[in-house]
Design a protein that fits this description.
There is one protein chain. The protein is about 25% helix and about 35% strand. It is α+β, with helices and mostly antiparallel strands. The protein folds into three domains: about 5-30 and about 45-105, PmbA/TldD superfamily (PmbA/TldD fold, 2-Layer Sandwich); about 115-220, 2-Layer Sandwich (PmbA/TldD fold); about 225-448, no CATH class. Helix 1 packs across helix 2 (about 75-85) and helix 4 runs parallel beside helix 5 (about 210-220). It is globular.
């Protein structure tokens, strides 16, 4: 299927011929490799090469979506016919339909999302890299007694979108990741943790000795954990937990959450909702960003959206459907898979750096918590109530002292956003959602 434009044109012509008012098609071709080594032995070696195609049609404001991995021409034409017929059984919705053609296009940017090394790296070399990664991790400390494995992942994907407006977009990207998970033991108690690196380019991955060292540091930091007393204290968010904090905010600024009234930021547009120091940006054009692209999944140019600026909520992220329903501009934020309809989503989400170092933030706390891990239970997206199982390190007189675990940390998101008192300068885009270290003035922890 080298000429994907021809495939798309054929499908769209057939949809029109069958009576569709509008139609679009998405095609995904990818190759993925996963290798996992544990204690030097290969435990998993897998390659997948999926190809799939999705068709969406609109007729009389009714909609149908189908998908297939059978890409033969006759099969695709039959699928088009069935999709158009299915649309007649769905409910009409005045907001259904493709984007207006004037909104569509591709951003003028150089994103550098593909590394040809994904096609040439030998399997033997990948195995050697993760064996050495695990060996380095195990050698960090005598208390590290076992490994949950070192994992290599790589993939390349070709992604195409075309529609009856005449939009055609095609992109290709590569992805590499390395992960190491270790186990440490002290006084009969075992703890595990991990570290990782992921990039579009192989030579931009974090060095394996650095990954091994960070995996060991995080694992060893859990040994000797205590259960803290119930109290109200300042809480410093480690960047990994800060990423989780951002994802909660992201969930409630999506147009879908707003029109479903499932957001504590409903009706807050252009109002101050956080401290003036807080700025949160979603940048779909970040060079080498893991969520970057030239166009979104409805054919609109990707862009940089400022969600919160100096504490003021500036934007709800909208795909075409949400923008029509909310009477707001679309933000180039549509995301979809072959099997799903478009919906708004973030791309490369981050909290802007502040002026403080991590050490300065920790030093500012006389007694409090350095929060390093939370689970996903306990978020009320309507009220913002926040209650999470947690673990971290206790801060005493401005210094990290001993690990704490088996407790909950609780607050309320709107109040927490108003109580951010220090923001760090250590933002690193390791994934598609990242924050620097930051401190919240007061939260409740429930332990003993």
């Amino acid at each position: 299927m080298d000429n994907l434009r021809t495939v798309c044109d054929d499908i769209l012509r057939e949809a029109r011929r069958r009576g569709a008012d509008q139609a679009d098609v998405v095609i995904s071709e990818s190759t993925s490799n996963k290798i996992r080594v544990r204690l030097g032995e290969i435990e998993e070696l897998k390659q997948t090469n999926p190809k799939s195609l999705g068709i969406r049609v609109f007729k009389n404001k009714q909609k149908a979506l189908t998908y297939t991995s059978d890409l033969r021409r006759d099969s695709l034409r039959r699928l088009v016919r069935e999709t158009v017929e299915m649309a007649a059984y769905s409910a009409a919705d005045e907001f259904n339909g493709l984007a207006e053609p004037a909104l569509q296009g591709q951003a003028a940017a150089r994103l550098d999302l593909y590394d040809p090394a994904v096609e040439t790296l030998a399997t033997d070399r990948k195995i050697a890299i993760i064996r050495e990664l695990e060996k380095l991790g195990m050698a960090q400390d005598t208390r590290i007694t076992n490994s949950s494995g070192a994992t290599w992942n790589d993939s390349r994907q070709r992604w195409v979108i075309a529609d009856t407006n005449g939009f055609y977009g095609e992109t290709q990207n590569s992805f590499f990741s390395l992960t190491l998970s270790l186990m440490a033991e002290e006084k009969g108690v075992k703890q595990t943790d991990y570290w990782w690196s992921q990039k579009h380019h192989f030579d931009r991955l974090e060095a394996i000795d650095s990954i091994a060292r960070q995996a060991a540091i995080r694992t060893l930091a859990k040994l000797g954990g205590r259960k803290p007393k119930t109290q109200t204290i300042p809480v410093v968010f480690d960047p990994l937990v800060g990423s989780d904090f951002l994802n909660i905010i992201a969930s409630v600024v999506l147009g879908t959450a707003i029109y479903r009234k499932n957001s504590f930021l409903l009706d807050k547009l252009n109002q101050p909702i956080a401290v003036e120091d807080l700025t949160i940006i979603d940048d779909g054009l970040l060079p080498d960003g893991l969520g970057s692209n030239l166009f979104d999944d409805e054919g609109l140019p990707c862009r940089r959206n400022t969600i919160i600026e100096n504490g003021v909520l500036k934007t709800y992220l909208c795909d075409i459907y949400a923008s029509r329903k909310l009477k707001l501009p679309p933000t180039g934020s549509a995301s979809r898979g072959v099997t799903s309809n478009p919906a708004p989503a973030t791309t490369n989400l981050f909290m802007q750096n502040g002026p403080y170092s991590r050490d300065e933030i920790i030093a500012s706390v006389k007694k409090g918590l350095y929060l390093t891990s939370v689970d996903w239970t306990g978020i009320n997206y309507v009220t913002g109530d926040y209650s999470r199982g947690a673990s971290g390190t206790w801060i005493e007189n401005g210094r990290l002292t001993y690990p704490v675990q088996e407790f909950t940390v609780a607050g309320n998101m709107p109040e927490m956003m108003q109580q951010i008192v220090m923001i760090g300068d250590d933002l690193v885009m390791r994934s598609t959602s990242e924050a620097p270290t930051f401190k919240i003035k007061s939260m409740t922890i429930s332990g003993t």
